[in-house]
Amino acid sequence: MKPPEKASFKKTVTRGDVDAFVAVSGDDNPLHVDEAYAAKTKFGHRVAHGMLVASFFSQCVGKRLGTDGVLYLGQTLNFRLPVYIGDELEIEFSLKSYSESTRTASYSTRATRGGTVCVDGEARVAFL
After folding, report:
1. Hey, which of 46, 86, 108, 121 has its CA 20 to 30 A from 95?
2. According to the model, what pLDDT value does residue 67 have?
3. CA-to-CA distance for 27 and 41, rounded, in angstroms?
4. Is 21 helix (H, G, I), strand (E, B) or coil?
């Protein structure tokens, strides 16, 4: 088996995404939910949760690696820049290594806005 070298897609972050993440996670920090509050911060606008952005990596594992038989084993994350409602992100997976004996792979993960990295890290996956 040869795992895919790359997987990617574009995603625009919406108010609905942020509001749904608040409902699921319980993280209703005013920076994420209150435009008036967020306007007074250094960010100037509501900021999407970093973990919401990181959750987009799951789509690469679940839908973009060419098979249904992929299991997420782990993920490291670096939150480099804020992501705002309305931002269009490029979500990317790039193969770093693969072990045929364990059928596991490591992928570099990146969420970029206009070519600038907002969130990155490394994913470990198993091919079933």
Report:
1. 86
2. 73
3. 18
4. helix
Q: Domain total for the chain?
A: 1
CA distances from 16 to 20, 48, 77, 127 (A): 6, 11, 23, 32
Q: Which residues of the chain have pLDDT under 50?
A: none
Q: What is the pLDDT of residue 25?
A: 98
CATH label of the domain that carries residue 118: 3.10.129.10
Tokens standing for 57?
């990596």
Model pLDDT, residue 119: 99
Triad 117, 119, 122: Cα angle to 5°: 110
DSSP state of 128: -
What pLDDT, on a 0 to 100 scale, did the predictor assign at position 11? 98
